[in-house]
From TrEMBL:
Pfam families: Acetyltransf_1. This is Acetyltransferase (GNAT) family protein. Residues 1-167 form the N-acetyltransferase domain. PROSITE patterns: GNAT. Keywords: Transferase. It comes from the Bacteria. The lineage of its organism: Bacteria, Pseudomonadati, Bacteroidota, Cytophagia, Cytophagales. InterPro entries: Acyl_CoA_acyltransferase, GNAT_dom.
Length: 167
């Protein structure tokens, strides 16, 4: 499998994957992503900023994530405490294709992001998720992310996690 930057031509496929994830969140009873976000404009912004990444099997897009090597302003204020100060990678808008569900693809995606971070000499990953996104909470726990407290996006509290990577 290959983790690479997405191309503009892949926006329709990425949006299809995200729409399925939005529907799944709703079916699971989650409030996450039920307010018009993410949307095609947020994905276009990811593409424009170089944040849009896809995990492929060489032919098909299996997963999408916004991977940001930089500062997330919402992370400047946390009710709790981050494990580290300094440079970090942010992961947002993670979604797997319907065909990839229950196959460990999201876990594999996170491992690939960890490798990408190390390759770029960034040894901290920060991520947040809704309190009711059970699949994501399980992945973060399974991969050793530490719960650090709460951050706020669009007026809502989110669980914030960090993982320190080996140097």
């Amino acid at each position: 499998m290959i983790l690479r930057k997405a191309t503009d031509s892949e926006l329709p496929i990425i949006w299809e994957i995200l729409q399925a994830a939005i529907a799944q969140r709703k079916q699971d009873g989650s409030r996450q992503w039920q307010d018009g976000y993410p949307n095609p404009q947020s994905i276009q912004e990811d593409l424009n900023n170089g944040w849009a990444y896809v995990l492929t099997d060489g032919t098909n897009i299996l997963a999408y994530a916004a991977i940001i090597f930089g500062i997330e302003p919402a992370y400047n204020t946390i009710e709790g405490q981050w494990l580290s100060e300094g440079e970090y990678v942010v992961i947002h808008r993670v979604a797997t294709s319907a065909a990839s569900k229950q196959k460990g693809i999201a876990t594999y995606l996170f491992k690939m992001i960890e490798n990408l971070s190390i390759e770029n000499q960034t040894y901290s990953i920060k991520v947040d998720t809704n309190f009711d996104n059970i699949p994501m909470l399980r992945i973060l726990d399974k991969l050793g992310y530490t719960y650090c407290g709460e951050v706020y996006f669009r007026g809502s509290a989110r669980r914030a996690y960090e993982k320190l990577l080996p140097k």
